[in-house]
Amino acid sequence: MKIRSVATVVRTEGVWATSRLAMGHLRASSVDRLKVPLGPALGVEFWAAYNRRQAELLYDSRSVAEPLETRWVDPKAIQKRPIYGCFDKLTNIGSVRGGVWDYSVTDVGNHPTVRGLHQRFEEGRAWEDTVYYARNVAAIEAGSVRKGCSTPEEFLDVRCVYLDTLFERIRMDGYRTQAELDGAMIDTNRFEMNQDRLLTNEVGVNIGRDGSFLINSGFHRLAIAKILRLEEMPVQIIVRHRDWQRTRTAALDTAFESMPPTVRSHPDMVDVLDTTSRRVAS
Known about the structure:
- The protein is α/β, with parallel strands linked by helices and 282 residues long.
- The protein has one domain.
- The protein is built from 13 helices and seven strands.
- The longest helix is centred in the N-terminal third of the chain and has 28 residues, at 15-42.
- Residues 18-27 and 278-282 have low confidence and may be disordered.
């Protein structure tokens, strides 16, 4: 997958561009390693403002999104996940990045969490017969703490019961935003309840250069939304590819009817199109 991805970039963008993109990705990864330890100390509101300001230095500020805003997206549109890990949500929310990170992806359906929840809620298996349980319990027995649990019994009695409750609540009440829930369904056995958690607890996605969605965080809720065949769910955009941000910026000066249909109807264009419509009206 990695070789095919690099070859694709070389063919489409050239050797020099590929080398610059790769170095940019490496530099960004190095910055991440420095940012993550500082993340909790500075808080999500600092990082949201910082990331927005960095983007506004490079792009028309009217096209730079509010980092903590949500978008309503069809769960079926989120089909891919990163192969080599996800961006730290706290320090990257609302940021814009170049690089080839959106090429190294695979199907979200083959993730063990998504597969395991499918086995539980679609096939009706006992938790003990799912890949989700087997994978996490194997890690616990090897000495790890998984989802806040340190024994197989705790994992079954606490984490799995939490997921059963979450599934039933979404099935019965529909998918509600974190603001509406006000922390009611945060797994406090796994996470500390604080303001940063409340502000960033929606499913997190990244947007690739072509506008495609990549899941970044919230695999469990995405899996449940897909199983329940929900038409839409709220998400937060963690990282936008630089080329997608350029598309957002270009839309400010493009007539609506001249935009490709995939751009006009994209969930991440609602704020830009609103800005454009106000400009035309005035």
